[in-house]
Amino acid sequence: MNDTAPDPDSDPRAGDSPAPRRSRLLANLVAAAIGVAILATGVAGVLLAPTPMPDFAMTVQSGKTMHLSNFRGKWLLVDFGTAHGSATGSAGVADVARVFDQMGPEAGNVRFLFISVDPRRDTPPVLGKYLARFDPAFIGANVPMPALTAVASEFGMTLEPGTSPPRLAATVDPRGGLSVVDPGGHLHQRLSLPLDKSDLERVMGLI
Question: Model-level pTM?
Fold first, then answer.
């Protein structure tokens, strides 16, 4: 989805000029600052530079088409997985359901979006039935291939469609977790599992 130009600092033909050295130093300082910010807030996860998310279409469990922009104005938790019981199954979904129950009315400011990595088998009715076991307000979505691979990449994931279900790996945080999109549509956090109520409330500025 993002057409990024090659990074001259990573080009071995560029040599080790002062400019690349300064760029690497700046990158290290930014990474250190991010680590300090995570420790300061006490949030378990990875803090990201706020990144505007591109809009994309998805088919939700009702059969209707929605776009990511439809969630503007609310905090959004995004999880990738499959309804067909595997390592990419219900761990995140169950965690969110538990924390939402603990939050009570405050959970009304958050939406949960479960994007299937196996859209062939996870049809809208299957997703609806699966998520209803946890919370009827949860939204399940299908994104068709090959767009799904690009969407996963925007959330810091790599997807290998050749396996069944497609293999999913987090490139931002190898421990996995939930992506957090703020009300303005910016991706800026990954929360580690198991999800903690205080972590989510800190991200939302409630505590």
Answer: 0.75
